[in-house]
Design a protein that fits this description.
74 residues; alpha+beta; SH3 type barrels; 2 helices; 6 strands; disordered C terminus
């Protein structure tokens, strides 16, 4: 999962995606600048346009979904 996330963050052109956690929460990743993974691959930080952010333990990421607004952004 972590390696897939790293590849998605480096893909050009970037395609928006959504991280889904084991708790059922979904976090959109709007651009490569909006997220990062720590060097150990144990945590992912996602920042939002309002200045807030969230840290997610990568072991709790259950799915990576294509963002529905990806086509609109292209």
């Amino acid at each position: 999962m972590v390696e897939n996330l790293r590849k998605l963050l480096l893909t050009a052109p970037f395609q928006r995606f959504v991280i889904v956690t084991s708790g059922g929460r979904a976090y959109p990743v709007a651009s490569a600048d909006h997220a990062d993974i720590n060097p150990m691959g144990t945590q992912m930080v996602i920042w939002f346009d309002d200045g807030s952010g969230v840290t997610v333990a990568t072991r709790h990421i259950t799915a990576i979904e294509k963002s529905e607004d990806a086509a609109a952004a292209a």
